[in-house]
Write a structure and sequence with these properties.
With 139 residues, the protein is α+β, with helices and mostly antiparallel strands. Helix content is 45%, strand content 32%. It contains 3 helices and 7 strands, in the order E-H-H-E-E-E-E-E-E-H. Strands 1-2-3-4 form a 4-stranded antiparallel β-sheet. It is elongated and about 70 Å long. It starts with 6 loop residues before the first strand and ends with a helix.
C-alpha cells in the first residue's frame, strides 16, 4: 500500500446552526434578562439550552476519522484511538432506525465503534474493507 491516498471524515458541522442560534439568543436577551424582563429570561434560557445541546452533540459526535497506510484512527474530545491494519479483521455498519454506526472487528474478536456521523458509516466501512482487500491481495 505504498501510494494509497488518505481519507478523512469529520462530523461536527451539524453543530454550527444550534451553536450560532443559541449564542444569538443569549447575546440578544441577556441584558434585558438582567433588567428583569421575563420574556428575555425565557429567550436566554432557550439560547443556553441550544448552546448546551450543540456542545453535547459535539462531545458525542465531534470526530475526525483518518484512514491511511498505517491504519484507521479517530480523534474526538475524549482522546485518540488508532488501529493498525494488522489488528483489523473487517469493518461493518449497522442501522438502528435512523442511526447508522460503523464498527471495526479486530483480530481478537472485539467490535469497536467508530463514533462518526451516521451518513458516513457505510462509506467508512467500505473504504476500510477495500483497503483490507488490497492489503490481503498484496500478501
Amino acid at each position: 500500500m505504498d501510494n494509497q491516498s488518505q481519507y478523512y471524515w469529520h462530523s461536527y458541522k451539524e453543530c454550527y446552526a444550534g451553536f450560532l442560534s443559541g449564542a444569538t439568543f443569549l447575546l440578544v436577551t441577556f441584558n434585558k434578562m438582567l433588567a428583569g424582563d421575563v420574556m428575555a429570561s425565557i429567550g436566554s434560557i432557550i439560547g443556553l439550552l441550544l448552546l448546551l445541546i450543540s456542545v453535547g452533540i459535539l462531545a458525542r459526535k465531534g470526530v475526525w476519522v483518518k484512514i491511511d497506510e498505517s491504519g484507521v484512527s479517530y480523534v474526538n474530545l475524549w482522546g485518540k484511538k488508532s488501529f493498525k491494519w494488522e489488528e483489523i479483521s473487517f469493518a461493518y455498519y449497522r442501522s438502528f432506525y435512523f442511526q447508522k454506526n460503523a464498527y471495526i472487528k479486530t483480530v481478537d474478536g472485539k467490535s469497536r465503534t467508530i463514533p462518526i456521523d451516521s451518513r458516513r458509516a457505510k462509506e467508512i466501512s467500505d473504504v476500510i474493507n477495500n483497503r483490507l482487500d488490497l492489503l490481503r491481495a498484496e500478501n
